[in-house]
Design a protein that fits this description.
Elements: H1 6-14, H2 21-29, H3 35-42, H4 45-52, H5 54-66, H6 70-73, H7 76-88, H8 104-115, E1 119-120, H9 121-128, H10 132-144, E2 148-155, E3 158-165
Antiparallel strand pairs: 1-3, 2-3
Helix pairs in contact: 5-7, 8-9, 8-10, 9-10
């Protein structure tokens, strides 16, 4: 997939304003009240990441998302998926402002649950090389904070808690689903991240 040059893209997003790339990056990084919503509502994740930078996107997206006005949040979901894929290699991580302030091993635990939903605490501990007690503490904290959910199952006579990310989408019942026309001008595929 090709991404337009900055000059072309900035005209698409900001009309006739001549926006230098460095100024745009600076204003996006602070969550500018017009630059950020305009970029999110008009750009694809690939375009945004290409010009903002993949490492800055991974680091900044949770805080930037929190600064979006309500009317722009509907465009953020595709960026959330792109962030989840870039940070954790899955589609199930939720970009919360505290993601990077979590202890590293807790963040690893959460990422593992997002990558492999349905694992038990023991299975996550084993995959990360953690002691079971430590893994249990991480699970309890993440459950308490609503970042994961647990489903109790019985397998071969043993009770297990299967862990799932809370961000995984749930399908609406058939009678609640609606269809809407697709805007073909917007390419909302999360696999559009382009390495910067």
């Amino acid at each position: 997939m090709s991404v337009d040059s900055w000059e072309t893209l900035s005209k698409k997003v900001y009309w006739d304003r001549d926006v230098p790339l460095e100024r745009w990056r600076e204003r996006i990084s602070v969550g500018h009240r017009s630059y950020l919503p305009d970029a999110v509502s008009t750009m694809t994740p690939a375009e945004f990441v290409r010009f903002y930078g993949i490492s800055k996107f991974k680091r900044d997206w949770p805080a930037l998302r929190a600064k979006l006005p309500k009317e722009t949040v509907r465009y953020a979901a595709i960026f959330d998926l792109a962030w989840s894929q870039a940070v954790g290699g899955s589609w199930n991580l939720r970009p919360t402002e505290d993601f990077f302030s979590m202890p590293e091993r807790r963040r690893d635990f959460l990422t593992q649950v997002a990558c492999a939903p349905g694992m038990s605490i023991y299975e996550v501990a084993k995959s990360l090389g953690l002691q079971y007690r430590r893994a249990h503490d991480h699970a309890a904290s993440l459950l308490r904070d609503g970042k994961i959910r647990a489903v109790e199952t019985i397998e071969r006579g043993h009770r297990k808690m299967k862990l799932f990310p809370t961000y995984a989408p749930r399908e609406a019942p058939l009678e609640e689903r609606t269809t809407s026309p697709v805007d073909s001008s917007r390419k909302d595929s999360p696999d559009l991240i382009v390495a910067a």
